[in-house]
Design goal:
66 residues, alpha+beta, three-stranded antiparallel β-sheet, 18% helix
Length: 66
């Protein structure tokens, strides 16, 4: 039986929500091993002068506890 843990992570990108999600996983993997999945819970964006300038995601990362 595997034991899994879920944490919530916030991330941002000036490119896309997908890039923000990738950044969240990459940064979290520096201190958390065995990441199994990522669930994008929320997406938002910052708008300046009628242009989207920042994409934000709130993700849940699931990883196996050894």
């Amino acid at each position: 039986m595997a034991v899994l843990k879920v944490i919530e992570v916030l991330s941002n990108s000036d490119k896309s929500w997908e890039d923000a999600t990738r950044k969240a996983v990459k940064q979290a993997s520096k201190s958390i091993k065995n990441i199994k999945s990522v669930y994008v819970q929320d997406q938002s964006a910052i708008v300046n002068d009628d242009e989207v300038t920042e994409f934000r995601v709130n993700v849940k990362l699931t990883f196996e506890v050894k």
